[in-house]
Write a structure and sequence with these properties.
alpha/beta; 342 residues; six-stranded parallel beta sheet; nine-stranded mixed beta sheet; 2 domains; 9 helices; Rossmann fold
């Protein structure tokens, strides 16, 4: 029989509900309680309900705590749960800055035996997994450069927590751009040199930025270019991976909004001998996906780590620290700091 892991979920907004459904589908998580400061979000759940997260953790004494709150309180809840012997799954971003991520890493280090995973969900999309398998196979050689664009339409004057920098830590960069930065690290490697900035190109009065740009380089000379935007108006996800022997294009992404277009991966093997006709026109291979099982795959990995069947490969605390350092560096450019080293 499948081992049941006693679990509570803190924060029952959209992501809390998404994780709740994924864990229910999985079957290995016994959700004993849900918690949110807004009682109206808890009324439909049959589990125990709490409006204070400390009371929830202390009262339920769970094996695992799932944290789906605003960014500002994630480090407090994660560390509180780790100190009480709980395993933790926390949403991204891992706090509001690299210091928050480092605090959680230090807490994990003091409480050995616990599992801590962060929800960098995009790594589990079919197109991303296919691209990683293709690169790891060596068929197209190694990645030497990448371009990532992730943009949406957003009203930065709207009264919500993501537009409150005290709660979120920033604007579109930390909210959505963090996913693309994580993928660029995933495919290209750790960036040591970065030059970037954020700006208010349309939403002049908003506190959080509507645009972020960066150019990044690894120690061995691989390069990535990044653009995150809240003023794309037509939702867009594009990631190009340039390899020594070919090229991969990732376009579109299946999300709950269904607004980023069809999710697909196209790859090309370089053809300098013109076997397919004119140079620069190699054969094209495309795969399209009409299903998003990323939430389930993410829970599978987490459950495997909890039950000793595997470790955390994606969304580790080191991933969290690394991507938050990139974000801190890009935000630093806004304050007049020159091109820096992470």
């Amino acid at each position: 029989m499948q081992k049941k892991i006693r679990t509570v979920i803190i924060g029952m907004g959209r992501m809390g509900r998404t994780r709740y459904e994924a864990m229910r589908r999985h079957g290995g998580f016994e959700i004993t309680a849900v918690c949110d400061s807004r009682m109206s979000l808890l009324e439909r759940y049959p589990e125990h309900v709490y409006t204070e997260w400390k009371r929830c953790i202390d009262g339920e004494q769970p094996q695992t705590v799932v944290v789906c709150t605003v960014n500002a309180v994630i480090p407090d809840i994660v560390c509180y749960a780790l100190e009480r012997g709980c395993h933790v799954f926390a949403e991204k971003p891992p706090g509001r800055c690299a210091g928050d991520a480092l605090r959680m890493k230090a807490c994990l280090g003091k409480n050995g035996g616990q599992v801590l995973k962060f929800g960098f969900n995009h790594r589990y999309h079919y197109s991303i997994m296919e691209a990683k398998s293709l690169i790891d196979s060596g068929f197209l050689g190694e990645v030497v450069a990448a371009r990532g664009v992730y943009g949406k339409a957003a009203d930065l004057n709207r009264q919500e927590w993501r537009n409150n920098v005290e709660l979120s830590g920033g604007g579109i960069l930390i909210d959505q751009g963090i996913h693309m930065l994580d993928l660029l690290r995933y495919f290209v490697g750790d960036f040591t040199d970065i030059d970037g900035f954020t700006d208010h190109l349309v939403w002049k009065e908003s506190v959080g930025e509507d645009t972020a740009f960066a150019t990044m380089r690894t120690a061995d000379g691989k390069v990535a270019v990044f653009h995150s935007s809240a003023i794309q108006w037509k939702h867009k996800f594009d990631l190009d991976l340039i390899c020594t022997n070919g090229y991969i294009a990732l376009n579109g992404l299946l999300t709950s909004t269904k607004s980023y277009g069809e999710e697909r991966i196209t790859y090309y093997k370089k053809d300098l001998e013109r076997k397919n006709g004119k140079i620069g026109n190699p054969k094209e291979y495309t795969m399209c996906f009409d299903q998003d099982d990323s939430w389930s795959y993410e829970m599978d990995e987490f459950y495997g780590a909890l039950t000793g069947k595997g470790g955390i490969k994606n969304g580790t605390v080191d991933d969290a620290v690394a991507v938050m350092r990139l974000i801190d560096t890009i935000y630093g450019k806004k304050n007049g700091i020159g091109a820096g080293v992470v």
